[in-house]
Amino acid sequence: MKIGILSDTHGSMASIRKVLATAPPVECWIHCGDYSMDANALHNMINQKVYAVSGNCDVMRGPVEVNPDCFLNMEGYKIWVTHGHLYMGETREINELAWWGQNLEQDIVIFGHTHVSVFKQVNGIWLLNPGSPSRPRGKNRGSFAVLTVNRGQMPAVEFIEV
């Protein structure tokens, strides 16, 4: 199962269009917040299932249900989607998300907020941030991610620059 993941689009419809023009076929999309309204726009553009969470810059309204956290079960993986700002603190220490993931009994934590792409395993928990297609930080280019999960196999991620 392939899942498209983006975060921190901050109202940039141009970056969402670039993501869609570049993305391989996926079964659904996840938007990790900032702005959750962009998840509604994404849903209207593709007419596919879009899971979304709210970020620290969000006002929620529209057809895509938005909460601070979303818990999914896909191909046997327990996946927690969050923007991350409520769990990392001001230090933006992503390893704190692994601690939360363990306590919430999740396999994969998908988050945004830092605008920096990462996929790594910490204490048995996979941490995935797709980066930001519109406002990347550091030396990173704009990006999104495609997560592949198949029952009984290791998760795999492809980061795609836009």
TrEMBL record:
Coiled coil regions in record: none
EC category: hydrolase
GO molecular function: hydrolase activity; metal ion binding
Transmembrane segments: none
Residue ranges of domain Calcineurin-like phosphoesterase in the record: 1-151
EC identifiers of the protein: 3.1.4.-
Pfam families: Metallophos_2 (PF12850)
Required cofactor names: a divalent metal cation
UniProt KW keywords: Metal-binding
Family of this protein: Belongs to the metallophosphoesterase superfamily. YfcE family.
Protein known as: Phosphoesterase
